């Protein structure tokens, strides 16, 4: 009897002791620390701001803090800036960086911090290349986007809109595209854009130029004005902050633009609604959604580090902005065309070209429509 009482007392004491320890542990649990290293500055109303939005959303919903480090636009600062951030291991549990220009800097150093998690967006880690990823970059998750697919829709849209009676549209089938730099990821936008326009009109004429940088709106405006003078109805800007000048030019000329990465018309609407009205849509690279998704997977213990994912139209990685400006300016038949084309791309009935294919199949900017792969789709039934 005495032995039973002692056993019961011991069990009760264990419960009493265990409960406070468990509660204290829960109370002492620290928030997840996230460092975001920007190869540029916030305020581009596009790619960089989109990434920040996704991380801020994650911070609001999960127990985490975000420390953003802006390296500016001088590429000479990128390697040392990222190296310093990665080495400051007391400041982060997860470090996020992105874009093609930062790829080598992260992949060369990730193995030095095996207890940390790295998220890289807009370029895939070279996991199989042991000269770069010494341990297979097994603590790095990377995510890329099918910008060629989203830009294909933008090209279909631009070419279709040149056939409409929208004020400011001329009879010539001329459209433009301005890239920030002549690099593979930007060219992947442009080849998709050109292919999409060719689906609508095999006589489409393309004006393509590179600004040579991401933070020069005056240069963007200068190039866009020249394109509009050459009878381009619509110019697609793929140039970050430089692209803000494209919108200024479109407003000045009474012509139109397509934005990039974010729903740029909705963002600009707050400060300049007249300018926003000239941005018919944007090809959204939904970096915000992808980083929020990645942080959610991290919190759930399901982030697939050591691998890369590509998010296209089907996965919500890319899309066209469907806002009030789009709905007001875009005829119903063109809206139906875009929806139908989106469906066939998702189903795989149209294969969108890419610069990231094998060398003998990689697309190149500036190809004539006659050199595009065969695409079977009845555009005429929509644009009667």
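Q: What amino acid sequence fits the structure above?
A:
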């Amino acid at each position: 009897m005495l032995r039973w009482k002692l056993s019961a007392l011991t069990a009760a004491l264990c419960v009493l002791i265990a409960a406070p320890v468990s509660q204290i542990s829960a109370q002492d649990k620290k928030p997840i620390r996230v460092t975001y290293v920007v190869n540029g500055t916030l305020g581009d109303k596009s790619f960089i701001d989109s990434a920040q939005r996704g991380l801020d959303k994650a911070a609001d919903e999960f127990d985490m803090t975000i420390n953003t480090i802006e390296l500016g636009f001088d590429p000479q600062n990128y390697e040392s800036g990222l190296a310093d951030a990665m080495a400051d291991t007391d400041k982060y549990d997860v470090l996020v960086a992105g874009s093609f220009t930062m790829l080598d800097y992260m992949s060369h150093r990730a193995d030095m911090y095996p207890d940390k998690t790295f998220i890289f967006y807009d370029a895939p880690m070279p996991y199989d290349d042991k000269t770069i990823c010494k341990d297979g970059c097994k603590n790095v998750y990377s995510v890329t986007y099918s910008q060629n697919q989203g830009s294909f829709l933008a090209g279909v849209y631009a070419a279709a809109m040149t056939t409409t009676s929208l004020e400011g549209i001329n009879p010539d089938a001329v459209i433009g595209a301005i890239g920030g730099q002549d690099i593979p990821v930007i060219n992947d936008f442009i080849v998709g854009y050109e292919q999409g326009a060719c689906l609508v009109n095999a006589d489409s004429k393309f004006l393509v130029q590179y600004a040579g940088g991401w933070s020069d709106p005056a240069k963007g405006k200068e190039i866009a004005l020249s394109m509009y003078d050459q009878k381009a109805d619509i110019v697609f800007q793929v140039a970050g902050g430089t692209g803000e000048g494209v919108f200024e030019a479109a407003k000045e000329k009474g012509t139109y633009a397509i934005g990039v990465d974010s729903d740029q018309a909705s963002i600009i609407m707050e400060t300049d609604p007249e300018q926003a009205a000239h941005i018919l849509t944007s090809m959204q690279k939904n970096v915000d959604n992808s980083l929020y998704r990645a942080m959610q997977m991290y919190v759930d213990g399901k982030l697939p580090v050591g691998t890369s994912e590509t998010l296209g139209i089907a996965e919500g990685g890319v899309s066209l902005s469907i806002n009030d400006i789009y709905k007001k300016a875009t005829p119903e038949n063109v809206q139906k065309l875009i929806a139908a084309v989106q469906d066939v791309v998702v189903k795989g009935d149209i294969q969108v070209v890419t610069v990231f294919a094998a060398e003998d199949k990689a697309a190149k900017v500036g190809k004539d429509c006659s050199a595009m792969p065969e695409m079977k789709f009845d555009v005429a039934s929509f644009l009667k």
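Q: And what stands out in the fold?
A: The radius of gyration is 25 Å.
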